[in-house]
Design a protein that fits this description.
The structure holds 2 protein chains of 2 kinds. Chain A is about 40% helix and about 25% strand. Chain A is α+β, with helices and mostly antiparallel strands. In chain A, helix 2 crosses helix 3. The longest helix of chain A has about 35 residues, at about 245-275. Chain A is globular and about 85 Å long. The model of chain A is unreliable at about 315-330, about 380-400 and about 405-430 (pLDDT under 50). By secondary structure, chain B is of the alpha+beta class. Chain B has one domain (about 1-10, about 25-225): GHMP Kinase, N-terminal domain (Ribosomal Protein S5, domain 2). Helix content of chain B is about 35%, strand content about 30%. Chain B has helices at about 1-15, 80-95, 120-135, 165-170, 195-225, and strands spanning about 15-20, 25, 35-40, 45-55, 65-75, 105-115, 145-150, 155-160, 170-180, 185-190. A 5-stranded mixed beta sheet of chain B has the order 2-3-4-6-5, covered by helices on one side. Classes of the chains: A alpha+beta, B alpha+beta. At the A-B interface, strand 3, strand 6, strand 15, strand 16 and helix 6 of A face helix 1, strand 1, strand 2, strand 3 and strand 4 of B. Strand 15 of chain A pairs antiparallel with strand 2 (about 25) of chain B, so a sheet runs across the interface. Chain B: Belongs to the RNase PH family. Chain B: It comes from Conger conger. Chain B: Keywords: Cytoplasm, DNA-binding, Exosome, Nucleus, Phosphoprotein, rRNA processing. Chain B: This is Exosome complex component RRP46. Chain B: It is found in: Cytoplasm; Nucleus, Nucleolus.
Chain lengths: ~425, ~230
Amino acid sequence: MRETPLSNCERQFLLKGIEEKKRLDGRQTYDYRNIKIAFGTDYGCCIVDLGKTRVLAQVSCELVAPKENRPTEGILFLSLELSPMASPSFEPGRQSELLVKLNRLLERCLRNSKCIDTESLCVVSGEKVWQVRVDVHVLNHDGNLMDAASIAAIAGLSHFRRPDVGIQGDQVTVYSPEERDPVPLSIYHMPICVSFSFYLQGTYLLVDPCEREERVMDGLLVIAMNKHREICSIQSSGGIMLLKEQVLRCSKIASVKVSEITDLISKALENDRRARKEGGRCGFAESMPVERITVLKSDGAQIEMSDAEVGSEAVTMATESQSAEPLSEVGRVPSPVVRAPGAVQVGECLQNAWGLGEEEDEDDEEEEERLEMQEDNQRPMKSKSEVVVISDSEEEEVVILHPKKTQVKDSKPETKPEAPSKKKKKKKQPLH
Amino acid sequence: MKSRLLGSTMEVDGQSTLSLREFGCEQNLLSRPDGSASFVQGDTSVLAGVYGPAEVKVSKEIYDRATLEVVIQPKVGLAGVKERAREQCVRETCEAALLSTLHPRSSLSLVLQVVHDDGSLLSCSLNAACMALMDAGLPMGCLFCGVTCAIDPDGLIITDPTAQQEKNSRAVMTFAIDSAQRRVMMSSTKGSFSVNELQQCIAVSQRASEKIFQFYRDSVRRRYSKTL
């Protein structure tokens, strides 16, 4: 599906608004949208809402062999996914330009800033190290994916606990969470990206652009910074020339925003830790806003099976009465036959029944003729009573339409083994 | 046959009540998709988003109905065979429920994101999908819900099992059940079980589906309580 294009009217409206220091959602120039951080039930799972933009991060780890040139360092692997849920223009599994750009930025923000002590992830030098994997899924795209992704990734990493390991001689044992408490990663600092969008050749600047604002922007400046005011990465894109003062001003704004966001993350982590310590419920189910009209929760439901037994029995009975024939047929599955060593076959070879059938038909005809003659003579009452029992079968009707033979032969496989009964049926024919 | 039947009903007798974990749903929580819902069953949580009916790629166009695409995104790593199998289960159920002939030559896409897996993931995905389709206002012949049953080594049936219960069980079955006649629209099974156990699980799921459909009804009633 293609992205709906922005009309010229909308574009001009947005730009005019920006010139008058007005934004679509009523924010001021330097305002961030509301940030909500929620942690899941597993460690390292976190959902970040930045206004309507929503990002899910999951941190996981596994033991791998280290890179040859760095035998004592663990590996941090980052993967950002643009889920087709986030926007109709995102296709699953496609390496779009935006995806590459975001992945690269995230790598520079987290891996190259060395915010995580990778040496502490080493288990056995040159043999086994932890690979920490961060999966970031964009769930709803309403602009400023980079900031949301970086907040989600660093919050997920700070929340994550890896299993404890023990080394005895050459043996490495990974302890389950029940055996030993999992250990948190050692994080030196929390780099957070702050995006600035520029309009009209850099005359106007907006912090945290929403999706509409991103579409009309001329250039973007992303600054990754930690709360110690250290710039971890800086990137300007869109081919816009910025003055030194502009960059300095942006970095000042960024330092304020970063300290706010870092505080928010630590508060969220603290809340989650407390909830876990108290043994209370945590996770997304608890962070569902129950007061909203679109939300409904139900406490676990009991299914009464007391009267349902009848139901289940009825179901069993009903299906059984229908499936009686197939079931009995299943019982007749032929056992494998070994004809020659190394070759097995199931069942006998099918014998051509065509020629045989004709012969039988002829026999039948002869018999019928004979019977007719007999019946003319005596009309045995006994056979008539039998006729009543079977006469409701469809076969009979068919036979009447074509007064002589054939149909009985190819009608049903079950009738085959019961050759005598078939003959009985034939007998009735003249009686009708 | 009769005695076997009686014997197995005794087993259900042993646990006269089965339970579903607490469940919850939030609809219309994402701004971009045409319909979205997150469904929570115990700790299992799935987020669903629906786009459509919209323009379809020529290669995927079907002349007399809408093309439905289902994507399931795992939480860690890329989608594999497991996800593809689940996608197919969900897609076929949705195709059966949706009146896609009303939107010929258009595309519907349903994206499911696993948020947390604690057992009964397929049934939770089905429920999330149905809620999202409802939220998108797509025409459906009936609603559907998913119920997972596990049979533990003692032959007891557990509905809505957790991941641990699924792991310990001998067989796990998931059924999609329609709201109109409580018929089975899709079944996915793992492990070994007898014909009788299957039929019992279907009966149990049909029972459990009533609870879920009642929940659907309540949530829709709540949602439109201000406008009606």
